[in-house]
Amino acid sequence: MKKKFFKLETLKRLLEKEKTIGRKIVHCHGVFDLIHIGHIKHFKESKRLGDILVVTVTPDKFVDKGPGRPAFKERTRIEALEALEDIDYLALNTERSALSAIRKIKPNFYCKGPDYKNFSHDLTGKISDEVKEVKKFKGRVIFTKSETFSSTRLINENSGILSDEQKMFIKNIKKNNNFISTRKKIENFKKLKVLLVGEIIIDQYVFCEALGKSGKEPVLALRDLYTEEYLGGAGAISNHLSTFCKNIKLLSMLGEREEFKKFINSSIQKNVNLEYIKKKNSPTIIKKRFLDHVSHSKVLGVYKINDELLTKQNEKNFNKILIKNLKKFDLVIVSDYGHGLISKKSAEIITKYSRFLALNAQVNAANIGYHTMRNYKNLDCVIINEKEIRHETRDKNTNIEKLMINLSNAHNIKNLIVTRGSSGSTIFNSKSQKFFYSPAFAKATIDKIGAGDAMLSMASLCLKMKLQPDITLLISSLAAAFSVENIGNKNKISKMKILKNLENLFK
Fold first, then answer.
1. Is 434 exposed, middle or buried (CB count within 10 Å of its CB: 0-12, 13-18, 19+)?
2. pTM reported for the whole predicted model
């Protein structure tokens, strides 16, 4: 069989030779996750427009079609396309959009399916950019007329990508929701003015190679290979919110010497307004984790932290800032890591002046046995995991639903969300006295750090804008799934990724 697959640069040279002898080039681009009759008809119709049909394929790392996608890896997708007679050349794209491929190929005809003709349905806005790019080279954009099928719908319904539980959950949501209406609600998040309160944390990940046991001591020896730093804690939450909301303010603390100030300013998104106090006798919080560079398994955590409460003067200054800001914002999100920023008095002020209050009071290695959410009352949204709710209620055995009712009553919580890892999440709405359940959507858990923060950021926005509990759980579960499939807080949750995931799940 003739060789069809080439690198883009090589393909560019081959096509230039074809053009010198007058051959017309036709270009198709896409993911092509599951080849079906719709694709075959699209390629046949496209090929009739010219002499050479070139197909470029989206790499795995740029496929944003939902959990577990692509169903088939890039090499398998290319092999399937190589078997189709109408395709003359194939290449793996090097970027997220088709623009760079179009520039190299300079097609006479660029073909898209009929479902792309309405540009308003294109979430990325890239189709209009592709049209402009093709016209720069005097090419024509053609929308084929062949019958359309959805790879995503076929995969969702017939593959093992979604579990039966996930399929049923999505099916029930689709009875009262559709993608267009859900998208409009998410777009409206930009109207919210959001105040975020919590400790900024510098997450340092030290990637190591395990050498083995020390020859002289019963200690694991590691070779330090490289270190990556990410903005964590409330800083990470502010970045998650940044693509959804225009107006975000973060109230936090840094160390007395403002360590990592330059890194924080360069890492935080431009639409986040940071105001902080300098905590006396304290460093900026650093959480260093040593992990194997291949498996990413964590070996050891070392924290640089002073988790004592603020001095009287620090607390006074911080409470002045709180009182000045709280009433100005539609939504207040508190991520209380128990590292000394939020005193009982500060919590009372937050509770008193917030219009809509969402809370995550985390239990971690530094505060377990001491940290509590008892300082907070009258909460609109709380996110807590199963371990934390049992710690909070000092109850190891009672079923989760009963504990959720008890905690909601004790703190006057309107919406209480409990996350349960691979078992999914549950929300209890105290007004309706109803429970709603969502399966987990993560396919591969790389790092659990930050999952609760990602979920808090989305759930608080959804509930503030009065989205139903089940669609709230779906959106926030997708955010959590994206988080655990990445190292730490390396990547922020993006509105585009959430929307593309939802679009494909609703098909």
1. exposed
2. 0.80
